[in-house]
Every structure is written in C-alpha cells, then in structure tokens.
Amino acid sequence: MSLVVQKFGGTSVGDAERIRAVADHVARTHRAGHQVVVVVSAMGKTTDQLIRLADDVSSVQPRREIDMLLSSGERISMALLCMALADLGVEATSYTGSQAGIVTDTSHTRAKIQEIRGERLRATLESGGVPVVAGFQGVSEEREVTTLGRGGSDTTAVALAAALGADVCEIYTDVSGVFTSDPRLVPEAHKLARVSYDEMQEMAATGGRVLALRSVEFARNHAVPLHVRSSFTWEPGTWVDKEDPTMEQAVVTAVTLDLSEAKVTVTGVPDRPGLAARLFRGLADRNVNVDMIVQNTSLHGTTDISFTIPEADLDASTEVCTGLLDELGATGVTSDDDVARVSLVGAGMKTHPGVTALTFETLASDGINIEMISTSSIRISCLIRAAQAEDAVRALHAAFELG
Amino acid sequence: MSLVVQKFGGTSVGDAERIRAVADHVARTHRAGHQVVVVVSAMGKTTDQLIRLADDVSSVQPRREIDMLLSSGERISMALLCMALADLGVEATSYTGSQAGIVTDTSHTRAKIQEIRGERLRATLESGGVPVVAGFQGVSEEREVTTLGRGGSDTTAVALAAALGADVCEIYTDVSGVFTSDPRLVPEAHKLARVSYDEMQEMAATGGRVLALRSVEFARNHAVPLHVRSSFTWEPGTWVDKEDPTMEQAVVTAVTLDLSEAKVTVTGVPDRPGLAARLFRGLADRNVNVDMIVQNTSLHGTTDISFTIPEADLDASTEVCTGLLDELGATGVTSDDDVARVSLVGAGMKTHPGVTALTFETLASDGINIEMISTSSIRISCLIRAAQAEDAVRALHAAFELG
User: Fold this and answer.
1) Is the CB of residue B78 less than 8 Å away from at least one CB of chain A?
2) Which CATH number does the domain A3-174 belong to among 3.90.1150.10, 3.40.50.720, 1.10.10.10, 3.40.1160.10?
3) B76 and A53: CB-CB below 8 Å?
4) Residue A350, exposed/middle/buried by CB under 10 A (0-12, 13-18, 19+)?
C-alpha cells in the first residue's frame, strides 16, 4: 500500500463528465489498495470568469478580497468531486485550504506556504476515506483566506505530498507528460519518460508550461517524486525525480520557447561602478523580475545595458529606467517586446563541451541572429527575434537529434 | 449614530451594475454617520446553477458537500461588494460565516444558529470599517461549513442584528415592502407602512414570500425591528415591529395565497382513540410538516382524516399513509394537489367578531366551496380549489376594503 497525492488541474475537472471521469480514476486507485489524497483546481475557466467579474465591478481590488473571490472556485470543484466519489461508493471529504491545515504567510494573492497541519487529512486517511483538498488556497495565522498565485495548485499538491510523506505526487493535466519540445511546434517531439528536478526547473523557468517553477523547486527541496500525466488518456507520463548518477545523462533533453519576455535597453550609461547596481535596485524595488542581462563595453566611456523582463512588467520597467536617466547620466531607454527566448536544457551539458558551439552554428546556418545569451551549467538560452522563434526551436530540436 | 444591518438578496446583487448600486447605498449610509454591517446572498441564480451542476455530476449528494458547494456563492458576491465599496473609498472587509463567528449545529443544509461570536465584526466596526458578511452560512463546532437552508440569509441578518444590538435590520429585496396582497393578483393591493411580528409570521407561514418565517420568528424573539424595502427604488418600505398597544389594529391587514400545498385524505379510519396519533407520528418521523387537519365525524363508526402538507412531501406522505392502512384498519388513501390556501391575517381580528362570517359569505357569493378551514387568533385560512384561488383573493381583498 502506498500513499498517493493526485492533483487535477482545471481542464481535468472542466465539466460534469470530466469530474465523473476523475472520480472513476481516484476510485480505482483507492480500490487498488492505495491511500489517496486528491488536490483540485477550480473548474475550467472559473478563475478567469471571476477575475472578469471583478474588473466589471471595480478598478480598486483589495488583494484580500481577490483571495476571498478566487478561493470560491475550488470549493465548487472539490464538493462536486466528492459527490461523484460518493456515487461510486468511495467515502470522500472535501477540505478547504484552511480545513486542510495549509498555513501561509499573509501575502494575499501570492502567499507562501509556511506549515501544513495535516491532522484532519491523516485522520481521514486512517479511517479509509479520501480527502479532497482545495488547491491554490490557504489560511494565514490571522485566519485570513489566502491564495498561492500562479501554479498554486501544483504547489499545494507537492507540499501535501511532502508533509504526509507520500510515495508520489501525480500531476494530472491536459498533456500526457513532459516533451522534448512543444509538439504543436515540433511534430517530432516525444514524451520523456524521466527528467531530473534540475532539468525540470530549467524547463519551467524557460517556457515549459507543464509545471510551475515553484512546485518543482518545492518537490526538489523535499525530494517528492512527481509523475506528470494526462487525465484524458490516463497513460503513464513523465517522472520528475532526483538525478540518477548511475545513468548517462542526455546532453540535451529539451528545447523550450518563451515568448512572454520583453527587452529593455538603457543607452549611454557612463562606465562607472555602482550605476548598474542603482538601476537593478530600482527594478527590484518595483518587484520586476529581471532575467537575462547584457552589458556592452564601449570605446567612448559609456555603455548600453540590456535586460529582459516579463512582458507584463514592461511599463513598470521603462518607468523605472526613465526616472533614473538623470541620476545615471544615461542618454535614453528603448524597449522591444518582439523577442523570443529559445533554450536548450540537459543535465549532460555539464560534461559535454561543444553544445554552445553547435547551438550557435545551427542558428547561424538558418540566418537567425542571437541578441543576448545566458547560460547555466545545464541550460543555454538565446534571445532572438520572435518571428524566427519557431524555426529556431525546430532547427535545434533536429540538430541535437531529439526527434 | 445608529448601528444598521443591511441585507441584500440575490437579485439585489445580481450583476456588476447592481453590486455597484448596492455599494453606493451602503456608502451613503456609512457617510451619514451610521455603523453598517452588510449581509449578502449569492448573486442572482448562482445557487440554482450550482444545484443543477451537482445534479449533473451525481445523484448521491452528501449534505456536507452540498454545504461546501453552495457556500461558495456568497464568497463571490461579498468579495465583489467589498471591491465596489473600496472603489467608493469605504474600507470594507468580507467575512465568511465562519470568520463572522456564526456558529451553528451540525445539521448540514438546514443548520440552526447556536451562537454568534461577534468579536471580529465589532473590531471592524470600531475601526470605522464596514463588515460584509456571507449570508446563509455558518460553521459548526466541528469546524464544518454549514448552510442555514431556505431564507437563511434573512436569518443571518436578523441574528447578527440581535447579537450586535443593531437599531434596525434592513432587508433589501426586489419588492418595495409588504403588501396587503400580491400586487400581481390584486392590482389595488397597497404597501403596508407597518405590520406586527405576529402578523408577519402568519403572512410568512401562509404564502407571503417577502420574508422567511424563521427570520421573522428570530426577529420577534429578539425584538429586532425589521425594515423591508426595495434595493431598486430605495424608498421606505414596511416596518415589522412589536405590536403597538396604543394603536387601533386593522381587522384584516393582508390576504395571502399559498399554492404549494397538497391535500391527503385517509378514508374509513375506525373511530377509535390513538389512530390519528399513530398516523401523524408516522408523518412526523418522515419529517413531513403537516399544516391543516380536518377529521369528519361519521355515522358509521369510521371517519375520514384529511390534512395538508407541502407538495414536495406528497410522495412521502402517501407512502406513510398507505403503509399504515392495515394497522389503522382504514380503507384507502387519496391525494389532491390541485388545492390552494387563501388566508386573511390581521391583529385586530382578535377583538372583532364577524370576520369569519364575512369571509364565508364573500366566498359563497362567488360560488367558491371551502374544503378545509383553520384559524389562529389573528388568521383565517380556507382550503379551496386552485382554479378559484385568484378570484377568492381578489374578492376577499375587496370585501375587507384593503384596496
């Protein structure tokens, strides 16, 4: 007998029929003798609809009230799933974030889990029942309802798996696993049987949409094995686990694409120490997450500083830069959201030189100009024109023989 | 400065525009120097939609999960109302039943309020804020989410008004007050400026739909003055308060109509003590609420027992009666849901004989046959054919000069 956490995303519980299919799967797992804890997201587009409704009502939206609003979605899906399980003879009990003992800090709309008080869930498991827990939400020490932000339901599932000592955390979604690249762009892309936490983190950080970065980090920190699979086909998906040192690593595991970044350049910055620090402190103070940074040296005593940020932060970023122009003694600010970041991820990269060279050769032979480069020990990212992004992904997927 | 509880029903917060109108009204009350506690229902048809969704998912619906499901509706409306209030510069904070300290028993889907722990609401009021509380829901001592059943939001409002010592509980709805009769049936019906708790209770019990019976009972028991008014016109409505002994009472205050009852007759019951008791114990054990009862005496040593019940309980009732036929030695069971109950309510009835006579004369002159009669000190109810119901209401409204 093992303890399994099964998390179902919004499309997996998108309508009455899907909810019944999920109940059937949970019931089978339960009947096979496993203990099951279920985590659900809100149904389909519920969260988007609630956000639209809020926008219709008011432009002033206290974050505490956004959390109260959005946390209603999972209550609906989890209660319905419990009813569907009852119909199959499985005793299931729904728990809000608060009832499940998911204690967070007080940062509304992006709360962090601080502690899991799992007594009620453990009691339900011990009595042979199936706890169905609301993903994405928790309760602060001040008894306020909080939500965890993007990817919150995955994080709930992983955190519960860690707290309860689950054998596996199964993440059910609308794709059948983690692929070598987005199959809509690269028809030859294939499903990976296994990736390491490190690789999955790099993929999540560079445009892989299957898992949210913070849930992968959480899984790695607590050594929770993840199994990403489809609630439509129910076939085995991709395991995300510790790196296996006895196995040879693929040099390149996947090619990812991120079109959501924008580039900002501050021109004519005097070449003096401390100015770059001033600029990035200003951005950090506005909560802008800077990703790639390139500083060109110059012959004239000035330099251009370019960096990428999420498109959503573009306005805030140009505001910060423009406001600092005088203080920096810089000449101007330009921005460009017509860029794409193409990345290669692979644990074997560490021990295989030549990946960078082949990457550059491949892009060059397709006439694709690289505007910025950043690397980690298991990743190479290139910023290119958005219009050339799909060609670049296909060319690299082929060059590294991932098909 | 007074403390006002304002309760807004589903149609009052039916869409974004209505929510903004409610916020405007609450903000005006607050700016006029009053302390305001707001209670909201779920938006428009939300509850019905959730029930339909549950029916699509499963025929087995544990009542605990129904409560979890339905309690999501008020979270949405109250969070949106707080946003709309924030837009108007009013600091408002939403509270779930649990957060508002509304402690109930554990009877899911029809919980009873046992205690109100109002500290959080009082603290919000003292800091100058407006607490917005979810109607219809509470939390049991076992930390389970409960709902209060039909008319639950009115009950929440009245209970909060009693616990906080409010000066008035304003019930906003889609009609402008309590009328002498349903204006859709009787165009001459007019709005009453004031009715007593007793009259309002009799009206609520006999088909008046403006207030739920239990909320009126609660208001009476705790002497909470109610003000029933429209959130569409905002004009003064009807006050429901203690009887004023210094004022002469109207003989008849209102004519009500209830089409939701059905009649069951058990024929040929031997005329022996204890048999009627056995029958009504059987019905009580199935939670059937029996209303009117008539037992005809007979010359042949047997009797027919007729009673009315809510139409929804008709199947259960005939089942109970049929099951008891042998034990009772009765000959048969008939049922009839084509009946209507017309009632006259008036506090002055106690001291004015002749109301019954005029009632019977009025119906007789219109050729309307009375099948059953029941009375209280301030009410007369007649069971008649459903097809004659509207004529009966109009005739009585005219005969007692309520127009």
Assistant:
1) yes
2) 3.40.1160.10
3) yes
4) middle
